[in-house]
Design brief:
The complex is a heterodimer. Chain A is an alpha+beta fold. Helix content of chain A is about 25%, strand content about 35%. Chain B is α/β, with parallel strands linked by helices. Helices cover about 30% and strands about 25% of the residues of chain B. In chain B, strand 17 and strand 18 form a beta hairpin. The longest helix of chain B is centred in the first third of the chain and has 19 residues. The two termini of chain B are about 40 Å apart. The chains are: A alpha+beta, B alpha/beta. Chains A and B meet through strand 3, helix 1 and strand 4 of A and strand 12 and strand 15 of B.
């Protein structure tokens, strides 16, 4: 069992989470050439090793998370909110409580 | 050439089974081959066999990083069927099933192909209609298909859960010519038959680098030295991206995911068919091996991975699905479970195609369905390599189908590899 340290809920089994996919993809602007959209939608680097990906805590807080994970050992190196604004709020709250 | 025969079985029975000899040679790699196939799985071995058999080519090597039958060839649930509907898939898988029907004779090796029927249960009028469309398409294109009502299904398989299933069974779509085969025997049969036609099968030989000479592959650096190659074919499901990137070709429309399979302790004959259950998010398939073990599987492990080991939540999911349709399995113990790494593609369909490099050919992206496809995959990949053009049956299994908008999305799930289970 992989355990993911959700920044909102704490350490949880990965069966509570659904998998998004490769978080390193930057979607191009809507009027970008079709080739750029083809690459973003269809092509994957498919890393064997440390990869940046998105997970959603579907059976918990339902927040989208960025996770840095090894795709062979499944070791998790970092977890943070996918939405930048939430990351800032979380950070500010921690500083306040400290 | 040493042919197996009933007479040999009898004769070796009298002499203590000591005179069988090896099934294939264990050659040292030569410095150069006309054709090198990377990947000694079912697809690679079948390709080498048909290159030699159908096209009369010599000087062929198959490179395998581990041992024959140790990858996905030995990590599947051995189901063979052709119930695909989309143009492109339909004729390809039907030809594959036809090759299966003669495979034991073709290879002089008993692959134990058992046409025990593939029974896909349905649980709602909508599912029945979708199956009717699919199986009618199959009947109109030279295959077989039947719809069973509840009475006929109860007659054929009396011990499914007809009483209190959460999703009551209302009937089944059936392909009688479908069934199972012994996966190891297929790998060994192809290896032996290819070897007898002069193919060098080189095990424990991992490709570590692809040497390019401009727009061509010049040689492969391997753990057993450098091997020059006239033409190169990749057939390494699960690790296609790694080889592709070794050749400096960028990214592919593939993600590697893992799929588990399970076998129980051996039981007396219990299930005569392959039974498939799919409703909502659940997905489950089961058959009984000739040794008596219940062989079954379910969904992907839901996230990308290169690990050849399965996770526990999927063990639970799959066993729950088993209990929901075959409650009689409740006290059966699980013997083993294993996991293979799949090339999951963006539309759930494979690639057998040319590549940006002139003498490099790609066979990849078999998703869940690689086992049943292996004879036709080898057949058409060999045809592609020998003639340097795709046969019309595989012309849509190309990498540029995504740019051209002719995706073959049998499941209608969209460009998300994990959904094409």
């Amino acid at each position: 069992m992989i355990r993911i340290d959700c920044p909102f809920c704490g350490l949880r089994d990965h069966s509570e989470f659904s998998y998004g996919g490769d978080a390193s993809i930057n979607y191009p602007p809507l009027d970008a050439p079709a080739e750029q959209w083809h690459d973003a939608v269809f092509l994957r680097e498919n890393i064997r090793g440390r990869q940046l990906e998105t997970w959603q805590h579907t059976s918990g807080c339902r927040m989208w998370l960025n996770v840095e994970r090894d795709t062979v050992s499944h070791e998790i190196f970092a977890v943070w909110p996918a939405h930048r604004g939430y990351g800032r709020v979380l950070h500010a709250e921690k500083e306040n409580t400290e | 050439m040493k042919q197996y025969s009933a007479w040999k079985v009898f004769k070796n029975g009298l002499t203590g089974q000591k005179d069988w000899g090896r099934a294939w040679r264990d050659p040292e790699p030569k410095q150069a081959y006309d054709i090198v196939i990377v990947g000694g799985g079912l697809h690679g071995l079948a390709t080498a066999f048909y290159l030699a058999k159908n096209h009369g080519l010599k000087n062929i090597a198959v490179l395998e990083k581990g041992w024959i039958g140790g990858g996905n060839a030995g990590r599947n649930t051995t189901i063979v069927r052709s119930n695909y509907m989309m143009p492109g898939n339909r004729q390809f898988y039907e030809h594959s099933l036809q090759l299966w029907e003669e495979l034991s004779h073709e290879l002089n090796y008993n692959v134990m192909f058992s046409q025990r029927a593939h029974v896909a249960l349905f649980h709602s009028p909508g599912a029945r209609d979708a199956y009717a469309r699919r199986y009618n398409t199959m009947r109109l294109t030279g295959s077989d298909g039947e719809l069973w009502g509840l009475e006929q299904l109860k007659n054929e398989i009396p011990h499914l859960n007809y009483n209190d299933a959460r999703f009551p069974i209302t009937g089944a779509a059936v392909q009688r010519r479908a069934g199972t085969a012994r996966h190891d025997a297929v790998a060994w049969g192809y290896a032996r038959a290819a070897d007898q036609l002069g193919v060098d099968i080189i095990q424990n030989c991992e490709v570590t680098a692809v040497r390019r000479d401009g727009g061509r592959v010049h040689a492969l650096q391997t753990s057993r030295g450098e091997i020059k190659a006239g033409k190169v074919g990749f057939a390494v499901a699960g690790n296609t991206t790694r080889l592709w990137q070794m050749a400096d070709l960028g990214n592919l429309p593939i993600e590697s995911h893992k799929l588990q399979a399970f076998v129980s302790e051996p039981l007396k004959p219990l299930l005569d068919h392959v039974v498939v259950f799919g409703v909502g998010g659940a997905h489950f398939y089961i058959s009984q091996s000739d040794k008596g073990g219940m062989v079954f599987g379910g969904d992907l492990d839901w996230y990308k991975s290169y690990a050849q080991r399965g996770n526990l939540p999927i063990v639970q999911d799959t066993c729950e699905a088993a209990m929901s349709i075959l409650p009689c399995l409740g006290r059966v113990r699980l013997l083993r479970h294993w996991s293979g790494v799949m090339d999951m593609t963006m539309d759930g369909s494979p690639f057998i195609c040319k590549t940006p490099l002139k003498n490099l050919y790609l066979n990849a992206g078999w998703n869940y369905g690689g086992f049943k496809a292996s004879p036709a995959s080898g057949w058409y990949f060999a045809d592609l390599i020998a003639n340097d053009r795709p046969h019309e049956f595989i012309e849509h299994f190309s990498l540029d189908r995504f740019t051209r908008g002719v995706i073959i999305d049998e499941r209608g799930a969209g460009p998300d590899p994990k959904l094409h289970g």
